[in-house]
Amino acid sequence: MGGWMLVVGRWSSVVGRWSSATRRWSLVAAVIVLGLVPVARAFPPSPKASAASDVGGLWETGTFSILGYDPDTGEVGGAVQSRVFSVGNGVLWAEANVGVVATQAIVDVGYGPKALELLRKNLAPAAIVRQVWDDDPDPLPENWTKQGRQFAVMNAKGEYAAFTGPKATEWAGHKSGKFCTAQGNILAGPQVVANMIDAFENTKGHLSRRLVAALEGGQAGGGDKRGQQSAALVIVKKNCGVWLHNDTILRLQVDDSPEPIAELKRVVEKWNERKPRSVSPECRP
């Protein structure tokens, strides 16, 4: 069984219908699941919960992500963790004055640029999620079906929508909060995304710290059933990155680590010690 359900809003509207008793939908806090090529490494074996059996053993999926907005600074961004190599290579897409997107699970990376293009046209996030999914021709229905896609879209004002397909590998789902959405699949359970929203909303400080706290919360809830390997973070605001005419506040990737969230946090804390600023007049204190 399956169905559509969008989580939409600043923080509370739910649109759509869900008919599976095995999966719950919640308001948007985006924790997303990506599929990337697995890499042989000296980590403990992955648990059997994997999408590999669904895709002929060629690929794996499984990720949790969060998108967030800071109304005080106008910054928008996202963070992600997965038991795949270099999860940042495809999940997160962001553009200043436009928004941020996460695309994962039985992933079509093309959802990222397509969603940003529609955000530039000022379409609402909920309309974008439906249009991108409806326009997906499902080119590999037998082993990489669109029914397993998962993605979330947030505009530059912090409005968002999220979708989890009925064939995304269990546990899969998303939850929303105030100015944040979390989504993921192959998770230990719904507590992963719930923890992410709670951590984001109750952590003080720069958006980078709140995004990392959300990943820590998700991991504390059990995270990806297979473990950890990589993490990434991106934050944008027009002309407010370091130096001149740079829209990127932060873009960080930990591609291969036994503790990628801890390493991401270490680098984020280094950045927050100094907070290098743009020389653009509109972003100077």
Describe the structure.
- With 285 residues, the protein is α+β, with helices and mostly antiparallel strands.
- It has one domain (5-230): Aminohydrolase, N-terminal nucleophile (Ntn) domain (Glutamine Phosphoribosylpyrophosphate, subunit 1, domain 1, 4-Layer Sandwich).
- It is 22% helix and 27% strand.
- It has helices at residues 111-120, 125-135, 191-202, 207-220, 260-274; strands at 5-9, 14-16, 35-36, 60-61, 63-70, 75-82, 92-95, 99-105, 149-155, 160-164, 173-177, 180-185, 230-236, 248-254.
- The chain has a six-stranded antiparallel β-sheet with strand order 2-1-10-9-8-7, with helices on one face. Strands 11-12-5-6-13-14 form a six-stranded antiparallel β-sheet, covered by helices on one side. A two-stranded antiparallel sheet has the order 3-4.
- Strand 1 (5-9) and strand 2 (14-16) form a beta hairpin.
- Helix 4 runs antiparallel to helix 5.
- 54% of the residues are buried.
